[in-house]
């Protein structure tokens, strides 16, 4: 038992490191798909999210997300107190069925918490003031994400249903939670200067597509920990199945997005290929341990097709999302969550209804809370930089720095 406990815990720590590495992927993807003059700003936000996110998760988040709901409670809100003092059996196999220790549990979940705000960072890139973004991160990662997370992963009301809501690694709990906030933020911020001309969307090319490509491959690697660690042990059958379904969905998402994009626009668009991979990954995340390889390919393929139409739709309704975060994380997050009721070993009408209730429940907390946070800031301190700051770049105005001081050729 002791050897198994150690092996499980080591696997969970490796997965924690992989999820941490995803923050590199997010940073590379965001800076690659945006302009050179805003690089420092995006990197600063990404570093702020992981550092402050971990401290907030230590202070309140972990015990807000895992409060230990009392028998017979409504399962909406509880709080187990500040800090992360381990329980009596926290370092023994009795804790978490021998899968890992209390400390590992905290760190693994803490890595997830920061991801939700990173999704918003890409969507608001190139035009949001840094101060209000930092304030949003504190409130959303500190309170909204763990409170919403407690409804399922903390044993709350969605987990108490007769047919429990199912979200294996966070298509809804992580990706849609970030996606809903991104949608509200983009709507309240408005589009970047030059994005819409006479009502038609204009391409604003990113400054480093190689960097964005590296970011997506790093994110895919990180997903081995994101989904693989969500087994919560090193169970050979479940971890290996989960990694197979994760990879097949990613591959199918990429190929189908590239193909559908080619049919629609008659060009082989690398950024669509990349976002298709991410869409497949987000889509499989809710049910990665419940699917056969064939199910995974189908879910990923549908996510890949969805990406192409979702990106076009978001442009059509005049929302400016520089990195496609809403299409990837919100739309594919919803799709992946509902897919648990359609494909795999849990599929059925009752499960589908439960998945739908879960999706709507998260919309019901994320949309109003994100709106309140952004709207109050918009009316008080303002959330958008001035026209001059936007045109000259946030790096110079918000940070007084240049990401590439010796590289002046590429200032489109």
Automatic annotation (TrEMBL):
Any Gene Ontology biological process: ammonium homeostasis
SUPFAM superfamilies documented for this protein: Ammonium transporter
PANTHER family xref list: AMMONIUM TRANSPORTER (PTHR11730), AMMONIUM TRANSPORTER SLL0108-RELATED (PTHR11730:SF89)
Gene: amt
Domain Ammonium transporter AmtB-like as annotated: residue spans: 10-404
Entry's transmembrane regions: 6-29, 41-60, 106-125, 130-148, 168-189, 209-226, 238-263, 270-289, 295-314, 326-346, 352-376
The species this protein was found in: Hyunsoonleella flava
GO cellular component: plasma membrane
Family, similarity comment: Belongs to the ammonia transporter channel (TC 1.A.11.2) family.
The name this protein goes by in its record: Ammonium transporter
Source taxon at top rank: Bacteria
InterPro entries assigned: Ammonium/urea_transptr, Ammonium_transpt, Ammonium_transpt_CS, NH4_transpt_AmtB-like_dom
Membrane topology (UniProt): Multi-pass membrane protein
Gene Ontology MF terms in the entry: ammonium channel activity
Keywords, comma-separated and alphabetical: Ammonia transport, Membrane, Transmembrane, Transmembrane helix, Transport
Main localization, broad class: membrane
Localization, UniProt: Cell membrane; Membrane
Pfam annotation, one family: Ammonium_transp
């Amino acid at each position: 038992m002791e050897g198994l406990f150690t092996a499980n815990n080591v696997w969970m720590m490796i997965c924690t490191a992989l999820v941490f590495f995803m923050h590199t992927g997010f940073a590379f993807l965001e800076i690659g798909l945006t302009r050179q003059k805003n690089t420092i700003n995006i990197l600063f936000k990404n570093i702020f999210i992981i550092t402050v996110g971990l401290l907030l998760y230590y202070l309140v988040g972990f015990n807000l997300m895992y409060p230990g709901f009392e028998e017979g409670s409504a399962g909406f809100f509880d709080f187990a107190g500040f800090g992360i003092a381990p329980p009596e059996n926290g370092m023994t196999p009795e804790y978490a069925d021998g899968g890992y220790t209390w400390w590992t549990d905290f760190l693994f979940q803490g890595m997830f918490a920061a991801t939700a705000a990173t999704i918003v960072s890409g969507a608001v890139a190139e035009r949001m003031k840094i101060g209000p973004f930092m304030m949003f991160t504190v409130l959303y990662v500190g309170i909204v994400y763990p409170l919403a997370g407690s409804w399922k992963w903390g044993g709350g009301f969605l987990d108490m249903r007769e047919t429990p809501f199912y979200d294996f690694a966070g298509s809804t709990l992580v990706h849609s939670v970030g996606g809903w906030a991104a949608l509200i933020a983009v709507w309240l911020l408005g589009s970047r200067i030059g994005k819409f001309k006479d009502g038609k969307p204009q391409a604003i090319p990113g400054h480093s597509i190689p960097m964005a490509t590296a970011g997506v491959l790093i994110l895919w690697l990180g997903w081995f920990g994101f989904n693989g660690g969500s087994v919560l042990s090193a169970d050979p059958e479940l971890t290996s199945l989960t990694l197979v379904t994760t990879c097949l969905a990613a591959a199918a998402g990429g190929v189908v997005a590239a193909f559908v994009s080619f049919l629609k626009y008659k060009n082989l668009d690398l950024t669509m290929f990349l976002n298709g991979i991410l869409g497949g990954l987000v889509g499989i995340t809710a049910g990665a341990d419940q699917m056969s390889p064939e199910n995974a390919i189908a879910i990923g393929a549908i996510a890949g097709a969805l990406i192409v139409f979702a990106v076009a739709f978001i442009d059509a309704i005049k929302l400016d999302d520089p990195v496609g975060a809403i299409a990837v994380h919100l739309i594919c997050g919803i799709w992946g969550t509902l897919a648990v009721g359609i494909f795999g070993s849990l599929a059925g009408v009752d499960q589908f209804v439960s998945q739908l209730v879960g999706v709507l429940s998260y919309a019901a907390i994320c949309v109003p809370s994100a709106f309140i946070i952004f709207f109050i800031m918009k009316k008080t301190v303002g959330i958008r930089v001035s026209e001059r700051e936007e045109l000259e770049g946030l790096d110079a105005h918000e940070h007084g720095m240049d990401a590439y001081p010796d590289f002046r050729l590429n200032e489109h």
